[in-house]
Specification:
With 255 residues, the chain is of the alpha/beta class. The protein contains 7 helices and 8 strands; from the N terminus they run E-H-E-H-E-H-E-H-E-H-E-H-E-E-H. The protein has an 8-stranded mixed β-sheet, sandwiched between helices. It starts with a strand and ends in a 7-residue tail after the last helix.
């Protein structure tokens, strides 16, 4: 049995993955944005160990979540699944940056740095990362006009940059990104061509501690596959880490 923490697990893919891992006998802790969502999460996955609450658009709350998580004990697996989708414009966070960047890109960085290091890390990305901008200019959307789809695409590229950077620096951690595909969820829209249960298969596979899957890969349809060329650029990976460090005040622990 492994101790597993999944962000964004009050519904959708995160909830399905949680239920699947619970059914395998693992101890799963959920995460939700607020108390009502936490109640929904626990009701949807009654076998979960518990639910941690934090709004990941807030740097302060994300840091506090890392402390909450560490206080429960070290997790064997952490899956960074929480995300704001491309069909919304949530505006700025309380820190004055794009909420999409804050939740999708910066929060995984902060939690990765501050949570006790697990054996396995999973970053949920998207095939739309291929449309992401790897120049890393104005990632917080503070000086350019906000474009919801581009912001989402960028954030999913950021997730792979982070995953690859962590895999390169932390040789003792199995670290991978994955694409669940365009599936029927609140984020993906219920007109999506794929079923959420199908999309969750790859996430469960990559999170499963029994699977020998290597590290520094991007998984799609249960197989490692190629990514945006920029995701493999170590210079861009390091630049992304520095951007996140400057915004959050949290330094990446390289060793």
């Amino acid at each position: 049995m492994a101790r597993i923490f999944i962000t964004g697990s009050s519904d959708g893919l995160g909830q399905i993955v949680a239920r699947s891992l619970i059914a395998q006998g693992h101890e799963v802790t959920l995460h939700a944005r607020n108390t009502q969502r936490a109640q929904d999460a626990q009701a949807g996955a009654p076998g979960a160990k518990g639910v941690l609450i934090a709004d990941l658009s807030s740097i302060a709350q994300t840091k506090a979540l890392a402390t909450q998580a560490n206080n429960t004990g070290r997790f064997d697996v952490v899956m960074h699944n929480a995300a704001l989708g491309p069909n919304s414009n949530p505006g700025k966070s309380e820190d004055g940056i794009s909420s999409v960047f804050a939740v999708n890109s910066l929060a995984p960085y902060i939690l990765t740095c501050l949570m006790e290091r697990p054996d396995r890390l999973v970053y949920v990305s998207s095939g739309l990362h291929n449309g992401g901008d790897d120049t890393l200019q104005d990632v917080t959307w503070t000086s350019r006009k906000f474009a919801a789809m581009q912001a989402y695409n960028d954030s999913k590229l950021h997730d792979i940059l982070l995953s690859n950077a962590v895999a390169r620096h932390w040789k003792n951690v199995v670290c991978n990104a994955c694409n669940p595909g365009w599936v029927k969820t609140k984020l993906g829209g219920f007109g999506a061509p794929g079923e959420a249960q199908h999309g969750a298969r790859t996430l469960v596979h990559v999170a499963d501690p029994k699977q020998d899957i290597g590290s520094g890969r991007y998984w799609n349809e249960m197989q490692p596959t190629k990514t945006h060329p920029g995701a493999d650029d170590t210079g861009k990976q390091e630049e992304f880490l520095k951007i996140c460090e400057k915004l959050s005040g949290v330094k990446f622990p390289e060793n």
